[in-house]
Amino acid sequence: MKNTILLITIGLLLFAYGANAQLVNSDNKYQRPLNEVLKEIEQRYDVQIRFSEKDIAGLVLNYADWRLRPDLEETLRNVLAPFDLVANLDEKSGAYKVEEFRYHRKTVAEAKEFLNYLSGLYSNKEEWEARRAELKSCLPSGVRLDKAPASPGTKPILTKIRKMDGYTIQNIALEILPGVYACGSIYRPAKIKGKIPVVLCPNGHFGDGRYNQDVQKRCAGLARMGAMSISYDLFGWGESGLQFDMKYHRKALANTIQALNSIRLLDYLLSFDYVDSDRVGITGGSGGGSHTMLISAIDDRINVSVPVVMMSAIHYGGCPCESGNPIHLCSGGTNNVEIAGLFAPKPQLIVSDGGDWTANVPELEFPFLKRIYSFYGSDAVVENVHLPNEKHDYGPSKRIAMYHFMAKYLKLDESKVFDKAGNLDESTITVEKDNDLKVFGDNGEKLPVNALTDFKKLEAMFQ
């Protein structure tokens, strides 16, 4: 009997000790495993939260229950922020997905709030001009252009000119820094009469880079219409990859080098006596769209800008080549919509679609941009072509919109890419093979002897 009582007593004591060990109070900072908290949130708010048990294994949240609020979104922020995690809503499924914090992304609600904040900073042209001056002063240093060494001033490496139907193509490698080459292809009208405009075509992250058929068609189409256009590699892509491995494309310095590529290639193109320096355009899609907005804001020589499938208040460009430098932290914080506003009052076309982060442009971002343009009166030109049923690309519909806009403001001949019925006709354009567009040979055998291949030495140039 005594042994039975003893065993019962010991059992009760062990149970009490175990229960006490599980108590959640200030002694242990109200700690609870994160996966347990997320599961409770699912039940309490009747939502689905997707997360990887493996990714959050071992994560323990301090003061867990004290972070819960009546509002679900606020609760998720409170619970996940200590771990640099966020919960993004999937509009289609209605579920929340737990992911690492992405500095370049905002929710639609956060985007609205930030645009409202920016709107409150200026209510007229004078106030906007003061803000504009701050941003235009900050952006070049933000992208580290103020640290860039002087141009080597060497002559570009040029291939033979290839004659096509209504245009020509010539590949170029321009030494923008000692041993660092920007490679691209220049498209010119077959016959040059008088002064002609220039259009920069920075590349985005579409497959095949500047060898992509949509890129080739766009540049050739502009040349047939009467402009000299140029497409050029992303840093670490295409022939740039002969010098610097693609892994360095995801370094912040890629943002700097790509900006320098545009500026110094434009320096070269404007040196031709047949080029009209008052008719300079720029257009790119996706990451090239980010670059279009940035260069349009920095380089006052640009007269017409067409960023495609990129202007958004919810996404600033996830690649460091777009947002790796603190350009979006300028003047207390900005975004690509306000950066696009720096181009006002000059002609700008925003092309958006329903299949990516530009889906909200007509209702969210474009009214903000249009308000900035309104400060300049009737002479200011900003338009939006929204393609709700299309996805993220620079396909025919996007090119149609761009061709019309460039033709109007750069005085180009639309009949060279549209038939008599007004339909797009790019049938006369030749899509070349990758090797045809290369400067340094099929496998880089013509790479200059002085070509820099050490990324650390490139970084040192900006220190």
From TrEMBL:
<keyword id="KW-0732">Signal</keyword>
<dbReference type="GO" id="GO:0008236">
    <property type="term" value="F:serine-type peptidase activity"/>
</dbReference>
<dbReference type="InterPro" id="IPR001375">
    <property type="entry name" value="Peptidase_S9_cat"/>
</dbReference>
<dbReference type="Pfam" id="PF00326">
    <property type="entry name" value="Peptidase_S9"/>
</dbReference>
<dbReference type="GO" id="GO:0006508">
    <property type="term" value="P:proteolysis"/>
</dbReference>
<feature type="domain" description="Peptidase S9 prolyl oligopeptidase catalytic">
    <location>
        <begin position="219"/>
        <end position="296"/>
    </location>
</feature>
<protein>
    <submittedName>
        <fullName>Acetyl xylan esterase AXE1</fullName>
    </submittedName>
</protein>
<dbReference type="InterPro" id="IPR050261">
    <property type="entry name" value="FrsA_esterase"/>
</dbReference>
<feature type="signal peptide">
    <location>
        <begin position="1"/>
        <end position="21"/>
    </location>
</feature>
<dbReference type="InterPro" id="IPR029058">
    <property type="entry name" value="AB_hydrolase_fold"/>
</dbReference>
